[in-house]
């Protein structure tokens, strides 16, 4: 949907006759930093620390929203075998793996969750806490169950501009990991970051 409005000068309230197209008003004119794609939030290495104690070293991990491959690199540094490629489409393809882990595009979180539950493999998705909201997701979580690892602080994602941004809280939404509790509140160790 494209909206049109008369532009207003920043230095005055004078309305010009020029019209400006806004494709997405929330991302184009937000008080938050503007960047090309709000789905591009790159995961820093310390974000995987709360997951590590629950993963088996002999597992093959599928980073199903591979993107730049940063998350895969983080797991490889910890000795895990990771598969994935930016050319693969998680919603249509399948890879042989023991565990699925990613920071999916948030605009596609419903599709990623539905697909992961269909595959019936253990998974962990780094998602905004607001993912708990919604009729559709509520139904999916009641049907399949969900466990959360909730850090005590926000994660400073890197965005394409290179800056760090932490304007929302996230959690690892887990399935099939047999966590000791359904809700796990953890201290997030940022290490030397």
Total domain modules: 1
* Physical arrangement of strands within the biggest beta sheet: 4-3-5-6-10-7-11
The residue-averaged pLDDT reads 80
CATH superfamily: Vaccinia Virus protein VP39
Our measurement of the CA-to-CA distance between the termini, rounded to an integer number of angstroms, reads 40 Å
Helix and strand succession?
A: EEHEHEEHEHEEEEE
| Overall number of strands | 11
Globally, the shape reads globular
Can you summarize the main beta sheet?
7 strands, mixed
Number of helices: 4
Low-pLDDT stretches are 1-36
Write the CATH architecture name.
3-Layer(aba) Sandwich
> What is the highest CATH level, the class?
Alpha Beta
Indicate the CATH topology: Rossmann fold
Radius of gyration, in Å, reads 19 Å
- DSSP strand content: 25-35%
Structural class: alpha/beta
Question: What helical percentage do the residues reach?
Answer: 10-25%
Explain this structure.
The protein is of the alpha/beta class. It has one domain (45-186): Vaccinia Virus protein VP39 (Rossmann fold, 3-Layer(aba) Sandwich), CATH 3.40.50. Helices cover 17% and strands 25% of the residues. It contains 4 helices and 11 strands, in the order E-E-H-E-H-E-E-H-E-H-E-E-E-E-E. It has helices at residues 25-28, 70-77, 109-119, 135-144; strands at 3-8, 15-22, 60-62, 81-83, 99-102, 123-128, 147-151, 157-158, 164-165, 170-175, 183-186. Strands 4-3-5-6-10-7-11 form a 7-stranded mixed β-sheet, with helices on both faces. Strand 8 (157-158) and strand 9 form a beta hairpin. It starts with a strand and ends in a 7-residue tail after the last strand. Mean pLDDT is 80; it is low at 1-36.
């Amino acid at each position: 949907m494209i909206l049109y409005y008369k532009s207003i000068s920043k230095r005055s309230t004078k309305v010009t006759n020029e019209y400006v197209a806004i494709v997405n008003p929330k991302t184009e004119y937000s008080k938050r930093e503007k960047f090309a794609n709000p789905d591009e939030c790159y995961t820093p290495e310390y974000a995987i620390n709360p997951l590590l104690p629950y993963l088996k070293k002999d597992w093959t991990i599928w980073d199903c929203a591979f993107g730049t491959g940063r998350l895969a690199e983080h797991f490889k540094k910890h000795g895990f075998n990771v598969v994935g490629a930016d050319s693969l489409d998680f919603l249509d393809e399948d890879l042989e793996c023991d565990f699925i882990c990613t920071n999916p595009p948030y605009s596609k979180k419903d599709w990623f969750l539905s697909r992961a539950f269909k595959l019936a493999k253990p998974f962990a998705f780094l998602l905004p806490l607001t993912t708990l909201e919604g009729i559709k997701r509520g139904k999916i979580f009641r049907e399949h169950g969900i466990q959360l690892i909730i850090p005590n602080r926000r994660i400073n994602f890197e965005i394409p501009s290179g800056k760090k941004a932490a304007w929302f809280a996230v959690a690892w939404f887990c399935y099939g990991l047999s966590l000791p509790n359904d809700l796990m509140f953890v201290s997030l160790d940022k290490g030397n970051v």
